[in-house]
Amino acid sequence: MIGGKHTSLRDVRPVEAGPRSARWRRVLVGLLVLIVGAGATGLLGVHSVTSTGTDRGYEVTVEYAAVARAGLDVPWQVQVRQVGGVDGPVTLAVTADYFDIYEEQGLDPQPTAESSDGQYLYWTFDPPPTGDLLAVDFDAYIQPSAQLGASGEVSVMEGTERVATTGFHTWLVP
User: Fold this and answer.
1) How far is CA 44 from the centre of its chain?
2) Residue of 86, 80, 82 whose CA lies nearest to 61
3) Over its length of 174 residues, how does the chain's per-residue pLDDT go in tens digits?
4) What CATH fold (topology level) applies to the domain 47-173?
5) Domain locations along the chain
6) Residue 43, C-beta contacts closer than 8 angstroms, at least 6 positions apart
């Protein structure tokens, strides 16, 4: 009550107290500008890289999304070269749980045989018609529910032994 009258101005800041600090508003606006700027320049989109391993006359190269976001299409392609040409079936061993972050659309070409030991998927492919390069494309996008990312490796199998191994990691941003 002011001067014997009820008033709704009790919570109004008095002029003598001066203006409130704008520091937190400036910090939040600055953060928002950084996020919008990162998105506008493509820093929050898909960034693909390649990784290569060689051993015993094989070269295995994987192109994959190093940085991605949920719901986006991403590359994942394996290329296998063999000194003197690929002359027989090629078996790839790929870390099985890496693919938990994906919604699969298909594998091209389809393997002639598939198996798993729980840790690795084993895909066997017929030799390519040209004989010098086997290329396998995994058509997929990141699951909308995927949050953190995943790591894996792919190897060319020679009998029961993994050779020409290369690793990869996909980091997911919000």
Assistant:
1) 12
2) 80
3) 555 566 677 777 777 777 777 888 899 999 999 888 877 777 777 889 999 999 999 999 999 999 998 888 999 999 999 988 888 899 999 999 999 999 988 899 999 999 999 999 999 999 888 778 999 999 998 998 888 899 999 999 999 999 999 999 999 987
4) Immunoglobulin-like (2.60.40)
5) 47-173
6) none
CB contact at 8 A, 120 and 99: no
Cβ-Cβ contacts under 8 Å for 169 (sequence gap 6 or more) = 66, 149, 150, 151, 152
126's tokens: 């017929």
156-166 residues labelled b (16+ CB within 10 A) or e (exposed): bbeeeebbbbb
